[in-house]
Give the backbone structure.
Amino acid sequence: MAALSKLPHSCYEIGHTWDPSCVQAAVDIARGALEVSFKVYAPLYLIAAVLRRRKKDYYLKRLLPEILWSTSFLAANGSLYIVFFCILRKLLGGFHSWSAGFGSALPASYIAILLERKSRRGLLTIYMTNLATETLFRMAVTRGIVKPIRHGEVLLFCVTASLYMFFFRNKDGLKGFSFSALKFIIGKEEIPTHSVAGEQICARSLERAAAVGPEASQASGDRPSSRSKTLVDQIRALLQSICKKGPRHGCCKHYQDNCISYCVKGFVRMFSIGYLIQCCLKVPSAFRYMLTKPSRLPALFYNKENFQLGAFLGSFVSIYKGTSCLLRWLRNIDDELHALIAGFLAGMSMFFYKSTSISMYLFSKLVETMYFKGIEAGRFPYFPHADTVLYAISTAICFQAAVMEVQNLRPTYWKFLLRLTKGRFALMNRQLLDVFGTQASRDFKGFVPKLDPRYTTVLPPGGDFQLG
């Protein structure tokens, strides 16, 4: 078959194969996308409102409009894609390798993101940029342009964690949610300090330790005798004494623990949180087996993934804290540069819970943070509406993969597209698109749509497409 540059088929033969009418096809997509989008955003906004402790006025006046706002954005993105799919076919007289995916999705995504609230555009842009970068990397691997690095997601996470923790330790390095999240994960004991104040910190901590000593002994003298204590109180008192007695450097700010118990407590705390998070995520699926197969319910608590997420979070915190304490002992100073080493080593914890999505998302957020810092410092230019343009380009890249080479698209996003379009995205006639050399129909098991011959292009029997 000759090398091709354009397919002469109609948009019905390749795209909306379930209905020959372009208008009706766009309506079908819009109707299905509205239904699915509302089901996605309604619980999402409701849960967010509960977690943020919104007042009654928000639920009465703002909740429903915000849900409908985001619903219209997502529905518009899907339906406008079909609209521009048909428009480009009429303008170009056929389909090029780029027009069925990238070319149609670019204007559709740009218009759709303008319908979304400005406060959400940045988050959506980060997500889609992350997804597009991963998709481009997979495309490059498929074409032999680059070779994948073994444990590359772990290495990327190590570098990202190193820089994140360095910014966390610097004054005004991180702000808002990023700072709050790291403060929750790592703990307030690692809140930013500076190396220039290291000796003063050590002196203050020694003075505090000296002051706490007499108070503790006085408090212990005022306590009732050990005979009146319960077994739980005795165990608690024993653990507290073990935690306080032991090596702790003067620059360390974990005054209630020595360095060893400080790391152990950090592991136990985040392991428990990670374990519970994973259990909660599996609760909805467990309801299906509550009546039919109740014997499978214990698997909810003993699932391997639960322990993997717990081990990932727990080891990240304990390695970071342990390395930071060790460096304070070795250098006799509390330096923000320690965070670079401690953060990189802590990133090794991703071996317990490998995730390209987590690594790419955090890296994208890091790039965004560094870019805005560059703008504040006057080193990087500010581009108005950069988030909308970047969202449109990133979404168009993902749609290009969804049409021409779905094997290079993240499976979860492909499932989302199928859900959004009620399965219609899989009804495209990808066997015709195979002529572009991307194996468009590889994962569709020879699917050929049933078309109405009244609306199809008639070709000479056995003739190849001669395209120019």
